[in-house]
């Protein structure tokens, strides 16, 4: 194939993807809507695409780029003279490393048994992944069912000798609300437990706003680490995040160093060895171009659009806004028993060209369940399209209200209650997915019944089946045999 044919084939592969520009995809991607930004980022990334960030002594440019990005994040987010940080591949890796560092500190201070990770149920799933990888027990901490903010009293009840880390969100991804960082961090500090602020999605927005209700960053006493993604509202290509730690000793807990083999001595500050320098360079270039004033303009315009969107959505019959959104995220829920089912609403908005993210209902400790919601991430590119989005939301809500509510097949749910998910083989999972209507990795056009089923199944069974869907999607393509 010629280079032109290869690129044409790549372009054709994207035909079924959701759009990454224009503001209609309100999850997964972040579009500033600024002319020239993408070209600058692409040029910077191309200039460093062959550079290996594994060894900053061989590539000192990488150390300079990383130090500049960490310094900018520390200046923006309340860092003190001792604050250090690490550039990672994304928010998940930043969260993983924060948990790893806290676990190592807990062990070094004589912790015995299995360490515990205290998570408000609204904390990002990346922390559950960290607990799985690094052998911590997850302690689900209830949030207020109305505000969806973490409950300090619930955190306090779980602070014991096995607590290795407490997590709070600024804001939480599901609902866009700000946890009571100061209260929780103070409780954690009094118990001698580190406190991590997950500001992956809000850390590059909240510092530029005038209406943030309370401090949330490293300036808050008791906060020991903070994560912020530059590939979200830093508007850099994926994947670039920064993990800040209040002092260098904590950062050492997630570094890996070995001279225990015949090869070169290895020191890795992140989970990866070889690290791509291209995304770092792109983030650096975008940051240098926009500067604080450019980011402030984007943040304020996007926040204003978010407020207008929340007010307009709350006025749609049958819908309500969950909690008090503080940044650029909005969650919509059914208002009253006869309100609009938001899982159906998600399908109706998809049909009108918008990707809004459905979130099934969630049973939390204590029985105060959280409702199904529809998640909207507002970016710079969406800011000029709020009126169009609201008009489509009104029309979609009217259509969704006329549909029957999605209900999981009771026979399938009853059968699932008898299943040991750990014992399921891949063929058995494939067969169950066929019964659920998602066989062959093909998702149905209307996803509301699938989300209703996920919510109704026992959580371990649902998780096994969800992994099965991805297993079907990622089946290798084989070349046809030749003669």
From TrEMBL:
<dbReference type="Pfam" id="PF00282">
    <property type="entry name" value="Pyridoxal_deC"/>
</dbReference>
<protein>
    <submittedName>
        <fullName>Glutamate or tyrosine decarboxylase</fullName>
    </submittedName>
</protein>
<dbReference type="InterPro" id="IPR015424">
    <property type="entry name" value="PyrdxlP-dep_Trfase"/>
</dbReference>
<dbReference type="InterPro" id="IPR050477">
    <property type="entry name" value="GrpII_AminoAcid_Decarb"/>
</dbReference>
<dbReference type="GO" id="GO:0004058">
    <property type="term" value="F:aromatic-L-amino-acid decarboxylase activity"/>
</dbReference>
<dbReference type="GO" id="GO:0030170">
    <property type="term" value="F:pyridoxal phosphate binding"/>
</dbReference>
<comment type="similarity">
    <text>Belongs to the group II decarboxylase family. Sphingosine-1-phosphate lyase subfamily.</text>
</comment>
<keyword id="KW-0663">Pyridoxal phosphate</keyword>
<keyword id="KW-0456">Lyase</keyword>
<feature type="modified residue" description="N6-(pyridoxal phosphate)lysine">
    <location>
        <position position="232"/>
    </location>
</feature>
<dbReference type="InterPro" id="IPR002129">
    <property type="entry name" value="PyrdxlP-dep_de-COase"/>
</dbReference>
<dbReference type="InterPro" id="IPR015421">
    <property type="entry name" value="PyrdxlP-dep_Trfase_major"/>
</dbReference>
<dbReference type="InterPro" id="IPR015422">
    <property type="entry name" value="PyrdxlP-dep_Trfase_small"/>
</dbReference>
<dbReference type="GO" id="GO:0019752">
    <property type="term" value="P:carboxylic acid metabolic process"/>
</dbReference>
């Amino acid at each position: 194939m010629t280079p032109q044919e290869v690129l044409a084939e790549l372009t054709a592969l994207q035909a079924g993807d959701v759009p990454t520009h224009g503001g209609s995809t309100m999850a997964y991607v972040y579009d500033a809507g600024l002319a020239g930004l993408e070209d600058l980022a692409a040029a910077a990334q191309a200039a460093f695409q062959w550079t290996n960030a594994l060894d900053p002594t061989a590539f000192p440019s990488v150390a300079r780029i990383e130090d500049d990005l960490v310094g900018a994040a520390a200046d923006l987010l309340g860092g003190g003279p001792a604050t250090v940080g690490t550039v990672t591949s994304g928010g998940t890796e930043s969260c993983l490393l924060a948990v790893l560092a806290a676990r190592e500190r807990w062990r070094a201070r004589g912790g015995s048994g299995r360490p515990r990770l205290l998570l408000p149920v609204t904390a990002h799933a990346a922390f559950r992944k960290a607990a799985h990888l690094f052998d911590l027990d997850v302690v689900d901490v209830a949030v207020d069912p109305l505000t969806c903010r973490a409950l300090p009293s619930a955190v306090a009840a779980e602070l014991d000798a096995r607590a290795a880390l407490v997590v709070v969100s600024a804001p939480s991804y599901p609902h866009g609300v700000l946890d009571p960082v100061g209260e929780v961090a103070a409780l954690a500090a009094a118990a001698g437990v580190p406190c991590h602020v997950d500001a992956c999605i809000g850390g590059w927005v909240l510092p530029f706003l005038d209406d943030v209700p309370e401090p949330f960053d490293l300036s808050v006493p008791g906060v020991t680490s903070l994560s912020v993604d530059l590939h979200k509202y830093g508007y850099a290509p994926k994947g670039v995040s920064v993990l800040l730690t209040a002092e260098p000793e904590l950062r050492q807990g997630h570094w890996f160093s070995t001279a225990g083999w015949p090869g070169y001595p290895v020191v890795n500050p992140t989970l990866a060895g070889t690290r791509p320098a291209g995304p770092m360079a792109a983030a650096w270039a975008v940051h240098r171009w926009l500067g604080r004033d450019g980011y402030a303009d984007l943040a304020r315009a996007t926040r204003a659009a978010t407020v207008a969107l929340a007010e307009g959505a709350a006025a749609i019959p049958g819908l309500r806004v969950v909690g008090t959104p503080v940044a650029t995220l909005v969650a919509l829920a059914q208002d009253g028993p006869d309100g609009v089912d938001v899982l159906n609403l998600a399908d109706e908005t998809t049909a009108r060209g918008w990707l809004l993210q459905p979130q099934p209902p969630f049973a939390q400790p204590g029985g105060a369940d959280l409702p199904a919601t529809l998640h909207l991430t507002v970016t710079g590119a969406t800011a000029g399209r709020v009126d169009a989005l609201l008009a489509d939301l009104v029309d979609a809500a009217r259509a969704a209200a006329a549909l029957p509510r999605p209900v999981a097949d009771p026979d399938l749910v009853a059968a699932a209650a008898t299943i040991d998910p750990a014992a399921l083989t891949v063929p058995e999972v494939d067969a169950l997915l066929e019964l659920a209507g998602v066989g062959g990795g093909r998702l149905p056009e209307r996803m509301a019944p699938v989300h209703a089923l996920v919510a109704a199944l026992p959580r371990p069974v649902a998780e096994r089946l969800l992994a099965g869907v991805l297993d079907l999607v990622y089946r290798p393509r084989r070349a046809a045999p030749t003669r």
